[in-house]
């Protein structure tokens, strides 16, 4: 019993999202049982009916805040968490559903739901950090499994995770993938944070920004860069 | 609790369902021993995908709709691609079709292995999770994880990654895999087929409550093959036989107060069931010999009407997906071009495929410039919602004498029979569905 009690407690919570980032934890097929051996999975509804009360040593939060109820719920999650890590684009940036932030929320709901009055939904979808203190943000849509394992390992060992903040371009160079921009293919690689190992360019597809902005990203410069690369392609 | 003679109201309630995808709860209200009301409560926040798609280029639909569900993104990508290709008047060549089916087999293997072993099996065996199960039966869980990993590997090789694959585009793929990449999968697929056969035999030994119902099963008809990745007709065991373009002439959707997902039902006929039980009931004869023999050896009826036995049917479909993946890998020839160029025009397109948990229907209207004017998405779980509530009603009525905890456990299990994906169900948001 005492051996069980000293294991650090892990909890996993879902807000507005697709489940894909918490699935990434279950997708760590080679490591899952080892993780379960090192930590007590105290709350993880997608995987277990067992619910153990906090406080939790490490909490992973997937999803954005999009309902009045979730504004309160995230505060409660924060209270019972020693370290809170926001995982994925929804939790770190509001996610794809934050596209609605620029739309008229009432009009949107009324245009797609017969009874918008049944809904309890905020006009905006916002990242976890707009509501509570977040100890670490792991970007990605979805997150990278390798980065998730690094974050878990780091916090359990009491150190900061080593997650790069440079751009996807660095990963392309490292892989030896020829630059798409110089071939005239629009690519967000120069302004997007690394983490996917420059996956899309390796499939001859321009980066579309799953991991959010890189450190010191300069999006204003990108259209110019795109335009010039198109011009070169046209005149090649 | 002492027996009383006065009428009393009793609730069987679970606020947050575990081992399902997304956020939902259950509330069964009994009055004087009789079921008064059943609610599958869905409070997964709405994300308004159909509204957000409007005005966006048609080429974005596969990547945007994949984000509806992290468990079955391939289903969304395939249904949306088929719909867009119909508008563009494009049919992809057989070699691209084969790659799509292979990718989809990967999703089936991953999703079914996840559900059979990690989400559903603990119900039958009395554990809270597969992780707990691993402490007493590590070999079972290790097999489950290896199967699941293979499903993910298939998706990674064909699609680039397992959650939200990046290699799918309207018209085909950005890059076709090299023959050697697929050939490398063969040994593990052979293992997976055997592991899936073991899974069928193992699942058939579980205890199933005595509980049957004469469902209306609805599945997609795919020419000459067990339905997975494409098809133009929807059929049922009770006479439904329609073009997918006629979907909304036969299916209506209702917005109920306790759910952020609309309920779908057949007009004038009521609830219907989609998913493994429906596919198996309607297209059992299209299963591969290996899968069919496994079903027979396990003593599975030709039509399974006990939803608790869906775990066995899912296992049979695991065999089918592994067998199909093997067939495709062994006969693979790369397409000459990884994709067919699609030029948009004004029009309407429909796409329907069999997600692991049932048919996923997409309908798009495009403007002449290729922007999306209207989008409708009907995921499997919203179609099964009414059926889940009906099952709970019948189950509690039949088993009302069970102790409270056991009844609640079994009710949750009855919901998991459908492998519900609540994240999906909440994001189908349809205009003009309420006719009051």
Can you give a write-up of this model?
- The complex is a heterodimer of chains A (236) and B (436).
- Chain A has 10 helices and 5 strands, in the order H-E-H-H-E-E-H-E-H-H-E-H-H-H-H.
- The mean pLDDT of chain A is 89.
- Chain A has helices at residues 2-5, 20-26, 32-38, 68-79, 88-93, 105-112, 145-157, 168-175, 199-202, 221-235; strands spanning 9-14, 40-44, 56-62, 81-87, 136-138.
- Chain A has 2 domains: 2-157, 3-Layer(aba) Sandwich (Rossmann fold); 168-235, no CATH class.
- The longest helix of chain B has 32 residues, at 94-125.
- A 3-stranded antiparallel beta sheet of chain B has the order 1-2-3, with helices on one face. Chain B has a 3-stranded antiparallel beta sheet with strand order 6-7-8, covered by helices on one side. A 3-stranded antiparallel beta sheet of chain B has the order 11-12-13.
- Chain B folds into 2 domains: 9-42, no CATH class; 49-409, Cytochrome-c3 Hydrogenase, chain B (Orthogonal Bundle).
- At the A-B interface, helix 2, helix 3 and helix 6 of A face helix 1, helix 4, helix 5 and helix 6 of B.
Instruction: Give the strand line-up of the largest sheet of chain B.
Output: 1-2-3
Q: Based on the structure, what is the oligomeric state of the protein chains?
A: heterodimer
For the record, the CATH class of the largest domain in chain B is Mainly Alpha
Distance between the termini of chain A: 72 Å
Q: Helix content range of the residues of chain A, please?
A: 25-40%
Order of helices and strands of chain B: EEEHHHHHHEEHHEEEHEEHHHEEEHHH
Greatest contact between two chains: A-B, 57 and 67 residues
The SS-based structural class of chain B is alpha+beta
CATH homologous superfamily identity of the largest domain in chain B:
Cytochrome-c3 Hydrogenase, chain B
The N- to C-terminal Cα distance of chain B equals 45 Å
What's the topology here?
The complex is a heterodimer of chains A (236) and B (436).
Chain A: H1 2-5, E1 9-14, H2 20-26, H3 32-38, E2 40-44, E3 56-62, H4 68-79, E4 81-87, H5 88-93, H6 105-112, E5 136-138, H7 145-157, H8 168-175, H9 199-202, H10 221-235
Parallel strand pairs in A: 1-2, 1-3, 3-4, 4-5
Chain B: E1 9-14, E2 24-31, E3 34-42, H1 49-53, H2 61-66, H3 73-88, H4 94-125, H5 130-136, H6 138-159, E4 168-169, E5 172-173, H7 179-183, H8 186-203, E6 218-221, E7 233-236, E8 241-243, H9 247-250, E9 251-254, E10 263-266, H10 276-283, H11 289-297, H12 310-331, E11 347-355, E12 358-366, E13 372-378, H13 380-398, H14 404-416, H15 422-425
Antiparallel strand pairs in B: 1-2, 2-3, 4-5, 6-7, 7-8, 9-10, 11-12, 12-13
